[in-house]
Each structure stands twice: as structure tokens, then as C-alpha cells.
Amino acid sequence: EAGVAQSPRYKIIEKRQSVAFWCNPISGHATLYWYQQILGQGPKLLIQFQNNGVVDDSQLPKDRFSAERLKGVDSTLKIQPAKLEDSAVYLCASSLRGTFSRTPYNEQFFGPGTRLTVL
Amino acid sequence: SQELEQSPQSLIVQEGKNLTINCTSSKTLYGLYWYKQKYGEGLIFLMMLQKGGEEKSHEKITAKLDEKKQQSSLHITASQPSHAGIYLCGADRGSQGNLIFGKGTKLSVKP
Q: Which helix (H) or strand (E) holds B5?
């Protein structure tokens, strides 16, 4: 079974530029998450989708961050314009939550992440 | 809001030694997840605990959730270099199924 795919793996941009990250979840997983992990910190949820609808975006800085999952499969996270403090690893995860599953809990499967450096 | 505190922040052990990592919550835990992360990689799921007093093991790693469901420990027996990495505990943030994470414990194992 293929895991969660993310691209690019690394990105270096200057402040005020725009950047986009792509995520393809595990096939059949209804729920997709974007997390931001700043160096030395644990991941922080930015946005959660179930199919193509937003479940939770309360921690997404909406003035500069946007995300979409138009067909309920892959997703794009965009930052426009980027700031220095956006330097972090952006992790995508998916889970079976929201699908017909006998999984008793919400195990999330993570992709390798995209490491963003803003200069 | 709920917070997770992990201790220690970092740990260096000699290969073959046992070690314990703790995760303490400011609120009752309804689902506690342990993940491992290697530098430059995503998180790998280790175990999930839900019931007070629950204990699970996988190979040489054992995780427990205390009876009051506010603290979990991760114990590694006879550590190996392959155990090196960052261990993160995560808790269900609410009914939506997303997680809040601790800051992680960085483990180094000296051969």
C-alpha cells in the first residue's frame, strides 16, 4: 500500500513570495490533515478536511494561508505572501475517519513532509 | 486549552540501557498516541492508548496510560541505535479527530 505522498520535499523562498505544497493521501482515506512543525516543536494542526469539506481550520492563518481539496482526494496548501516565521516542516496526514471502517481509533498516517525555508 | 508536556526534552543513553519518556496532560486524555520521527521524515505511528491503566507493547517498546488518564509513559528495553529519533505524544484535540502534540523527546543511543 502506497503511503502519503508530498511534494516538494524541500523549498527555499524569499519573504513575500508565494509557495504551494501538494499532498496525495492514502487511497480510500476520507480525512486529510495539514500540520505545521516548527523546529523543536510538535506538529500543530492547520486544517482538516473530510472528503472535500473543511472540518477544522481554526488554527489556519487565513490572511496568508489557504488550502483546498477540490475532488476529495489530493490537496494543496498555499502560503501567500510568506513570512520568515513560516519556516517549518509542513506535514500532511490522512486517516480512515469518515469512511466505513472498523478501525476503533483515528490512526493518522503521515507523509515525509515539505521543509520550507523563508529567507 | 489542553497542553501536553513531555520529559525529558532530550536523552542520551548507552546501547542496551533501558529508558522511559513521559507525557503529561493538563486535561483528561481520551486518546493518547505515540509517534516516532526521524530527522527529515514524517511521523511513524507506534501505539494508541485509550483506557485508564491500559498497557501496550510492540517489540521492545511499552506504553502505559495511567488510571487517571492524565499521564502516559513510553518505556524502551535494551535500547538500540535504531531506536534513536524524536518521540512525540499526541492527544485527541476534540471530537473532530485531530491531534495536539507535545514538543517531543529527542533520543540518542550511543553504540
A: strand B4-7
Q: How far apart are CA A8 and CA A22, in angstroms?
A: 7
DSSP string, B90-105: EEE-STT--EEE---E
What pairs with residue B43 in β-bridges?
B37
A16 CA to chain B: closest CA distance, Å?
Answer: 25
Set of chain A residues whose Cβ sits within 8 Å of the Cβ of B102: 42
User: CA end-to-end span of chain B, whole Å?
Assistant: 41
Q: What is the pLDDT along chain B (111 residues), one digit of tens a residue?
A: 668 999 999 999 999 999 999 999 988 888 899 999 998 788 999 999 988 889 999 889 999 999 888 999 999 999 999 999 999 999 987 767 778 999 999 999 999
Cross-chain Cβ contact A110/B43 below 8 Å: yes
